[in-house]
Every structure is written in C-alpha cells, then in structure tokens.
Write a structure and sequence with these properties.
Layout: E1 2-9, E2 14-19, E3 24-28, H1 29-34, E4 42-43, H2 45-67, H3 75-84, H4 89-101, H5 107-118, H6 124-133, H7 138-146, H8 152-166, H9 172-184, H10 189-203
Antiparallel strand pairs: 1-2, 1-4, 2-3
Helix pairs in contact: 2-4, 5-7, 6-7, 8-10
C-alpha cells in the first residue's frame, strides 16, 4: 500500500498526486474521483500498477509522439517535456525505449543533421555547446562532427562579409558589435582577428 501525501491542482484539467515514497504523477480530475484518490488515504500496489500501465504509459507515449510529429527532438528534450508533465521516471524510460525501438528518436542522427545544417554558420565550439544543451552525449557529438569536413575559416569569413555590410568596422562601435556577434557564435578573439584581416585584404577594406 502507498500513502498519498499530496493531491493538488496541476492545471485546469489535471491534478498532481504525490505518494509518501516520492513517486509523483498527474491525472485528470475525473480520474482522481474514479480511483478514489485523496490525501492521507492509501493506494494499493495493484491500483498503482493499473494507473501506470493503463493510463500513464499510454498517455505519455501519445504525448511523445505528438512532440516529434512536427520537429525532431532529442531524448533529453522529450524527457524534459514528460518530466514537466509529472510522468514518473519508469514511464519515461518505457516511452524512450519505445521511441528508440521504432527509430522515432535518434540522437546521433539528430546531431549529424544539426551539424550539416549549421556548420556553415557556427563555430565547432558553438555546435558542440548547442548539441550538449539539447542533451546529446559528448561522444555522440564528437562522432557526428567527425562525419563532416568543417571549414571554420570559410564559415567565419561568410559571417564577417555579411557583418561588414551591417556594421562599419572602421568605427570602434561597429567593430565591437561585429566581434560580439562572432563571439556569441563561439569564435575566439584571435580567430576573429585573423578572419577580419583576411576578409579586409580580400575586400580591399581599410
């Protein structure tokens, strides 16, 4: 038996249920009544298993499939969304396993696609940072990067050429703005200096 320590509103439709063990999940208000769940009362092991297997797993799977219906997402992005909706870890693990089994989620494929799309616009360090923030494992990031020949000189040169049209780099304020833009994309100060000199030489800019 599991003692219920909290039954509180989660949103307009759902209620958060917390057990003494810390196990937490969310149900619709009608389900709270159906299963007769209330604070300081007990849930049997059989009832909890029924809720997890017949309600939470099905609902979490549908939620995950909806999340990836328009935009590919990483395992961490899906996990974070499900955690926010108070799905228990065991349910999330089940859903991630299902998605991986049917190739609905593929962190390596996601990383390769991201590198291919943005390698001409961002530095290698920025690509690594972006993918790491999305929850991609470092070893997967390195493997994805190794699949492509990334020419950082070419990418920063293109950014500078566009920046020169936007900022007056003969003016200190304009130069600072250009440097700030490039550093936000992960390029180092020395790399930026060399690239600006390279572009200036090729463009005959003073």
């Amino acid at each position: 038996m599991y003692r219920v320590t909290e039954v509180s509103p989660y949103n307009k439709l759902k209620v958060r249920v917390k057990l003494e063990s810390g196990f937490t999940f969310a149900l619709y208000k009608g389900e709270i009544s159906k299963y007769k769940i209330s604070t300081d009362e007990y849930i049997s092991e059989d009832l909890l298993k029924q809720i997890v297997d017949e309600v939470l797993k099905k609902r979490a799977k549908e939620r995950a499939l909806y999340l990836i219906s328009d935009v590919t997402k990483t395992k961490k992005q899906i996990t974070d969304k499900l955690e926010k909706d108070y799905y228990p870890k065991s349910v999330i693990d089940y859903v991630i396993g299902f998605l991986e089994e049917y190739s609905f989620v593929d962190d390596y494929g996601f990383a390769c696609s991201y590198v291919q799309t943005y390698s001409s616009k961002k530095s290698v360090s920025q690509l690594k940072y972006d993918l790491y923030k999305k929850g991609i494992d470092k070893s997967i990031i390195e493997s994805a990067l190794s699949e492509f020949e990334i020419d950082e000189d070419a990418s920063i040169d293109r950014l500078i050429e566009r920046g020169i049209r936007k900022y007056d780099i003969t003016d200190m304020s304009g130069r600072r703005k250009l440097y700030a833009m490039l550093m936000r994309k992960g390029y180092g100060y020395d790399c930026i200096n060399r690239a600006i000199n390279r572009v200036k030489d090729n463009s005959c800019i003073d």
